[in-house]
Design brief:
alpha/beta; UDP N-Acetylglucosamine Acyltransferase, domain 1; 3 domains; nine-stranded mixed beta sheet; 4 helices
Length: 220
């Protein structure tokens, strides 16, 4: 896995042909891996993350410490995986656990800093759609096929194929019937069908699409 650091300082989008990545103006990838066939819109930042192919991120979105699956769509103005602060210490401020001399001109000595676990990863599955201005708290897991409504704040894990909205986000229903959800979880079409072979699938009829994908998988 090759770690990538890419920054587009141009005023227009830029294609990185070798990496199969498109970066919008002032978008950046820092210490991350993106599998390719991916777009990141203007002023968005991806840091310390791993992202699989066939997806995209809207403008003004911040992603940090995340593992994101295939065919997942993240809208504009989202905040995903930002570091938390302690709520049961003396203070909520980071001066207690982080050397702040370079950013705030003074800091406690390293031996006086307390250990704060900020290493938890945030996981977003395959075929996930995250709506505009959503917030996904660090360490949460969003299952395959989920939809997160615009403006929602996700504080807990979400089951595969659930639709969640609100603050805090709560499941309101599943995308499909239980039998179809189970079939899709078994199929894992994003791993078992090459992109070019999706041509001709009746995407807008879920039952037919499942039958067609099952037939394609049998032939491979």
């Amino acid at each position: 896995m090759k770690i990538q650091d890419l920054t587009n300082n141009d005023l227009s989008s830029r294609k990185y042909e070798n990496e199969k990545i498109v970066l919008g103006p002032n978008a950046e990838i820092i210490n991350s891996f993106i599998e390719g066939y991916y777009s990141i819109d203007a002023w968005s930042s991806v840091r310390h993350s791993s992202i699989k192919k066939h997806g995209g991120i809207g403008a003004f979105t911040y992603v940090s410490g995340c593992d994101i699956g295939k065919y997942s769509s993240i809208s504009a103005r989202c905040c995903i995986g930002r570091s938390n602060h302690p709520s049961n210490w003396l203070s909520t401020s980071e001066f207690q656990f982080r050397n702040s001399h370079d950013s705030r001109f003074e800091s406690l000595e390293d031996e006086d800093l307390k250990k704060w676990d900020s290493t938890k990863r945030t996981t977003i599955g395959n075929d996930v759609w995250i709506g505009d201005s959503a917030v996904i708290l660090k360490g949460t897991k969003i299952g395959d096929g989920c939809i997160v409504g615009a403006g929602s704040i996700v504080t807990k894990d979400l089951e595969s194929y659930s639709i969640a909205v609100g603050n805090p986000a709560k499941k309101i229903k599943y995308r499909f019937s239980q039998s179809i959800c189970e079939k899709l979880k078994e199929l894992r079409w994003w791993d078992n069908i090459e992109f070019k072979n999706l041509a001709g699938i009746e995407f807008d009829n879920i039952e037919k699409a499942i039958d067609q994908i099952e037939n394609l998988i049998r032939k491979t």
